[in-house]
């Protein structure tokens, strides 16, 4: 729900839309295999890789070792304005393991939280590349399909989030639409999401220098005048959080947006959760078992036991059971120790008992929790489904939260709220302070593995 503002943590950071590609460090993507299925027990392996988001990369003046961005401020000499900064600066290749704590082995990807290399790095965000490609992201249309993966969250405590989600991004990272972008998907450019993050450094081919204000809580982040909601013309955009979780709580959440041609936002159009002013539904329609009244379903020793690895299956059901139909429901189930576990049923007054996200659930949930129904106002499930056909990029990340301390996932949020929907997990309202989390849980990590995509019913078995 709030994945963007807390993701900036390495000392040399930049998101790029009009930036050069550096050559000081070779860019070598960690390999990662996944499977494309056509029917049960009929899957073929895809040889892909992952690429680090440009947010985390060292950004320097072209042909030199001079930083364009240090800590949470711009280099005023090289970045006098947005256009000159984009022309003057390059982002460089990454030492995935040594600097960022990112490793892969076969079909498994490990993302470590704190890595102490030459500089201290916090968290990471990576994208799945197309098989055999170094320059294009893999894109997915999930209508009438299911997405399955294994995950180990046993080492993710309160205040952390090991997330897997889809974002509507250009497959080439924006190179075709912004010709001054010479880095592209090879260097992890082009990120956008429904939170309309204003901490993105380069937007629409220019640096986000105007109005840049360093963060008061994050020594490596800040915000500019412009936010980035969306990056795909002629279609509603979406952010689909398939998986946001630690060992205590989990939620899956679709977020529709209404824009069809603009790529940036300013002022009220960037919006805030539960606001009707912005172009995106930042709150989304979330399914969190604990928040929905079932407190013993997910967690250490619970029905889905987070002390060990398990499989997560998400199904995208359409009105006519075809890839051309309207998205009508998003279903969730789990597999652990050879047993299929159906998602928990809701147990909230005013919400008809269900274990899936559909339009009726979203409408009733918003009323029961006293939340604005921005999900419906921004297009609802139909809007989410219509955007799928443009193709979605797979994002995997680990992060802590400088904006809301992850309380929206695993604690009470807002902290003063009472009544239905306030409590989302057992974590204390004081548990998510990023400085505390980074100091107390530096060895935290998440492991994603065994990704499979195919028609409903084809990617898992008991």
Automatic annotation (TrEMBL):
Gene3D superfamilies assigned to the protein according to its UniProt record, in alphabetical order: Glycoside hydrolase, family 7, domain (2.70.100.10)
The keyword Signal appears for this protein: yes
Pfam families, sorted: Glyco_hydro_7
Signal peptide feature range: 1-18
Record GO biological process: cellulose catabolic process
Keyword Methyltransferase applies: no
GO molecular function annotation: cellulose 1,4-beta-cellobiosidase activity
SUPFAM superfamilies linked to this entry: Concanavalin A-like lectins/glucanases
Keywords: Carbohydrate metabolism, Cellulose degradation, Glycosidase, Hydrolase, Polysaccharide degradation, Signal
Annotated catalysed reactions: Hydrolysis of (1->4)-beta-D-glucosidic linkages in cellulose and cellotetraose, releasing cellobiose from the non-reducing ends of the chains
Record EC number: 3.2.1.-
Similarity comment: Belongs to the glycosyl hydrolase 7 (cellulase C) family.
Protein name: Glucanase
Annotated organism of origin: Collybiopsis luxurians FD-317 M1
């Amino acid at each position: 729900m709030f994945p963007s503002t807390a993701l900036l943590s390495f000392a040399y950071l930049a998101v790029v839309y009009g930036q050069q590609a550096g050559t000081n460090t070779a860019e070598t993507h960690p390999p990662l295999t996944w499977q494309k299925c056509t029917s049960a027990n009929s899957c073929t392996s895809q040889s892909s890789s992952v690429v680090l988001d440009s947010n985390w990369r060292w950004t320097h003046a072209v042909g030199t070792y001079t930083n364009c961005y240090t800590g949470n401020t711009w280099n005023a000499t090289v970045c006098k304005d947005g256009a000159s900064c984009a022309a003057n600066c390059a982002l460089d290749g990454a030492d995935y393991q040594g600097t960022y704590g990112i490793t892969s082995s076969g079909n498994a990807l490990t993302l470590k939280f704190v890595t102490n290399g030459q500089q201290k790095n916090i968290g990471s965000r990576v994208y799945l590349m197309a098989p055999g490609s170094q320059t294009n992201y893999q894109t997915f249309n999930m209508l009438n399909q299911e997405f399955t993966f294994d995950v180990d969250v046993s080492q993710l405590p309160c205040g952390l989030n090991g997330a897997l989600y889809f974002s509507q991004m250009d497959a080439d990272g924006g190179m075709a639409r912004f010709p001054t972008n010479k880095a592209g998907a090879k260097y992890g450019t082009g990120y956008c999401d429904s939170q309309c993050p204003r901490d993105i450094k380069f937007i629409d081919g220019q640096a986000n220098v105007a109005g840049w204000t360093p963060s008061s809580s994050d020594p490596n982040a800040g915000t500019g005048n412009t936010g980035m909601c969306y990056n795909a013309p002629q279609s509603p955009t979406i952010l689909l959080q398939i998986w946001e979780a630690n060992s205590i709580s989990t939620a899956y959440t679709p977020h529709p947006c209404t824009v069809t041609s603009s790529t940036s936002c300013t002022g009220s159009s960037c919006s805030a959760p539960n606001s009707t002013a912005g172009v995106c539904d930042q709150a989304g329609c979330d399914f969190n078992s604990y928040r929905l009244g079932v407190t013993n379903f997910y967690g250490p020793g619970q029905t889905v036991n987070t002390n060990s690895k398990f499989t997560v299956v998400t199904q995208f059901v359409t009105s006519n059971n075809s890839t051309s139909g309207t998205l009508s429901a998003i279903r969730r189930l789990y597999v652990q120790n050879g047993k299929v576990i159906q998602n928990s049923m809701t147990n909230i007054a005013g919400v008809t008992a269900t274990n899936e996200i559909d339009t009726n659930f979203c409408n009733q949930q918003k009323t029961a929790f006293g939340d604005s129904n921005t999900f419906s106002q921004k297009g609802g499930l139909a809007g989410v489904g219509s955007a799928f056909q443009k193709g979605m990029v797979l994002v995997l990340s680990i992060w802590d939260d400088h904006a809301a301390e992850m309380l929206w996932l695993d604690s009470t949020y807002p902290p003063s709220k009472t009544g239905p929907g306030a409590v989302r997990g057992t974590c204390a309202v004081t548990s998510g302070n990023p400085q505390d989390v980074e100091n107390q849980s530096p060895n935290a990590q998440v492991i994603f593995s065994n990704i499979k995509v195919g028609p409903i019913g084809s990617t898992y078995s008991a």
